[in-house]
Amino acid sequence: MHRITLIPGDGIGPEVASAVVRIIEASGAQIEWETHVAGQQALDKFGVTLPEELLESIKRNQVGLKGPIMTPVGKGFTSVNVGLRKALDLYANLRPIRALPNIPCRNPTLDIVVVRENTESLYAGLEHEIIPGVVESLKIITEKASTRIAHFAFDYALRESRRKITCVHKANIMKLSDGLFLNCFHKVAQDHPEIAADDKIVDNAAMQLVIRPEQFDVLLCENLYGDIVSDLCAGLIGGLGLVPGANIGEKGAVFEAVHGSAPDIAGQGIANPIGAIWAGAMLLDTVGEPAAAGRVMRAIEDTTRDGRVLTRDIGGTATTREMGDAIAARVLS
Q: Could you report the per-residue pLDDT of 170-189, keeping only the tens digit for each?
């Protein structure tokens, strides 16, 4: 029996999370869920956005499944996602980007993985107002974190038989911060001659991803670039609804779809659950259920290949529930 922390999230979070729970249960894996709230729901109930009992649950179980949680734009509380990663030192963000059968894609064999450092850079949210009208944001890059994420990327590439890692940076302008990140990457690369290693300036990398994405295999990015580049990659295969994510640390991992809470469509039952379900498959693999994970991934691919049950964002008319049920039925078959 695997005990897993479940954070349904808000907006469309509970809708896609419930689909994942049904499919994981259909996979045959023995799961016991511990459900907790975060974000606005937790603030209303406990006075904090990340309750200590939630953090303790993930620390105890070492694995969690999270639905999207709303982050107010330009006001309100700070990002719960960033706070969760910091509190649990989930330093590596892993986002596989792979074309699915029958989903329009210029490169139907596209298969890229974005590895993103999860704790530093501008995305850490260290900013303050110096005087009215003048705000300063701090970009922190350390040798320790940069080396750690580079080791993670090369270890992942070896384990998954990947052939090349490209470091994405802006070291031509930010010579100290991005320069440090790039130097750490090349130092670690020297210990792995069996894997090709190169680097690209982030703006060029973005252009190359649009023009010729098949040249890339694994992309290693610092925090902010990784967030932007992984969304660009999602656009190459049909949108954010198709992409999973994992936040991984030395003592645990939290899996999620990479899209936001989409409050504009919350409650309408039209959200695409595939990214969240794929994240569930990654979770199953992590807890030692590779056969169940394989059944879930085959069910996703068979469902899109069949094409009869697809949500609106990928050309169909199905509801979230119908899409989840179709995938669950194939897991069981």
A: 999 999 999 999 999 999 99
